[in-house]
Amino acid sequence: MTRKRRRLYFVLFAMIGLGAATALVLSAIEDSLVFFYTPTDLAEKDIPKDRRLRIGGLVAENSVKRGADGVSVKFIVTDLTNTLPVTYKGILPDLFREGQGVVAEGKIDAGGVFRADAVLAKHDENYMPAEVADALKKSGQWKGAPAP
Amino acid sequence: MDGIRAFFEMDGYGVYVWPAFAVTAIVLIGLALASLRTLRDNEETLESLQGQRRRRAPVAGGQADGTDGDGR
Amino acid sequence: MHRFANPNRFLRLTARILPWCALATAAAFIAGLYLALGVSPPDYQQGESVRIMYVHVPAAWMALSVYSFMAAASAVALIWKHPLADFAAKAAAPIGAGFTLIALVTGALWGQPSWGTWWVWDARLTSVLVLFFLYLGYIALVNAFDDPIRGAKAGAVLALVGFVNIPIIKFSVDWWNTLHQPASITRIGAPAIHSSMLTPLVLMALAFAGYFVCVLILRVRNEIAGRKIRALRLVQAQG
User: Fold this and answer.
1) Per-residue pLDDT tens digits for A63-96
2) Distance from CA of C146 to the nearest CA of A (A)
3) Assigned domain for B59 exists
């Protein structure tokens, strides 16, 4: 075996070992890498409810109710399997709308309502002009935000 | 005039869009100019060093292409 | 293969390529900027802020590609000991760091209007920040040695170890819940992005790639010149 070949194998094996070690570490700490929980995660996984957490999903259609004071808002977050009611007081981001993704930070109160103190909009990976979006919706080929 | 203003305001998103393009331009142009400048400086230093060497040893062989073979 | 790794051959070849590369890059930038800022339509959801995509996405692509190039060059340098591979890795690092910085800053400027925040510690954003520090660490490490050959060797090991971060960045949006959306262009033929926006994006990506090639050539030429200066100074010092 030449020295070049020996170095080649050494680098290859080192990279494979490093990759495997990283994969093991990442799968071990997977839960702490999750940025938010879905309503189904909250229902099925054993997540402590007394600490601050982030939840995410789609804002259910026709669920947004704005309060009389103009800053408080109630809406329902859905992952199309389970739902979670959310209350929030403050300014919503531009992309917050029904049928679009959202991430909220806060705590679940005794009544099972999520009290958010921050709301972030999560946008999808579709980019198109408004006319194209309208045309797709009319022709029934819409594949963007699904209707709940 | 209004068309130009609308172009720069971008429905209020201009304050985000223009800085994004400005940062890109500054980083890319700055890096290109810095790379060009250090290359010029180094090439000048190299030429003066090679000139000194040629003056000291006028019959140096193996420099047909004007550069030193520097392979390891 | 050693024939192509000859520094003098590289100098002659790139002297001919460089003007054409610069010309093509400038043309792609002019066409891409004109379409991105002037012609392309606002997005149906994001409105005009979508124009940030035309610098953010190419910069992020290049941040990953340049690191992959650096890791590949480092592997070649470690295994086959080609001096040009060392030069290429060292020359690419500052360009990659610049692209990563652009991706981070434009991402914050895009996140504020669309998500409602400049920054979040989700898996995608955090792993890209790690990439930026890897670039900076590589540059610092390579320059920390008096002997450039030893510096290049230490840098090559760091570049290869840091390569595990690249697939993590790429797939972070698929493996974990992140605020960052998944990739728009995953399949050839049916990207989730309309052609009126895809054309300027592709032009800008070509411009960024051309920029990388041009500046890489400049920086590798600079590395070669620097190594020759070092050799000549050593000869002078000895006699």
Assistant:
1) 899 888 878 899 999 988 889 999 999 888 888 8
2) 25
3) no
